[in-house]
Design goal:
single chain, alpha+beta, seven-stranded mixed sheet, three-stranded antiparallel sheet, GDP-mannose pyrophosphatase, NUDIX_hydrolase-like_dom_sf, NUDIX_hydrolase_dom
């Protein structure tokens, strides 16, 4: 028997970005309960760096009512099974207008697997050429913010950058010696 068995599953909410599912479950002990799951497609997060400059994006995040600085990132709701490197290249160009000569794979992480099945692929982009942004309507307020790598590390340490995916991507890339 699995640690937790799904007895029944129902969709309680769905839109083009996510689906919320409520599962009736039975634990190995026999105790039953409810588990809420948010289903979202995996995304790519990209650390674009040229010499000592990292190209961040800043946008208003409605859920916390603040503008936040983060690495370019996103998913393709219309094509959730897209090749992760193509997704990363596409998101980089869409959000920043940058085209990379090389995209080095850093790894895969889960965003918050306690309630959500979404994960993300991390890439370091180098050999950057400036092109034109191709923002979605939801990104109309997005700004590209170039900062030095030292500033990026200081902003993570001070807590000015609060996006966990960004902090994780930078940390993992550093630990692997890719930046």
């Amino acid at each position: 028997m699995a640690d937790i068995e799904t007895l029944h599953s129902k969709i309680v909410y769905e839109n083009k970005w996510l689906r919320v599912r409520e599962d009736k479950i039975r634990r190995a002990s026999g105790n039953e309960g409810i588990y809420g799951v948010v289903e979202k497609p995996d995304f790519a997060i990209i650390l674009p760096i040229q010499n000592d400059t990292v190209f961040m994006v800043e946008q208003y995040r409605y859920t916390i009512k603040q503008r936040q600085l983060e690495l370019p990132q996103g998913a393709w709701e219309a094509n959730p099974d897209a090749d992760p490197i193509e997704l990363a290249k596409g998101e980089l160009e869409e959000e920043t207008g940058l085209i990379a000569d090389s995209m080095e794979y850093v790894g895969f992480q889960y965003l918050a697997y306690g309630f959500c099945d979404q994960g993300y692929h991390i890439y370091v982009a180098k050999g950057l050429t400036q092109g034109k942004q191709k923002l979605d309507e939801e990104e109309e307020d997005l700004r590209v913010v170039p900062i030095t790598f030292t500033e990026l590390k200081e902003k993570i340490i001070s807590g000015d950058i609060k996006d966990a995916s960004t902090c994780n991507a930078v940390g993992l890339a550093m630990l692997k010696g890719l930046i």
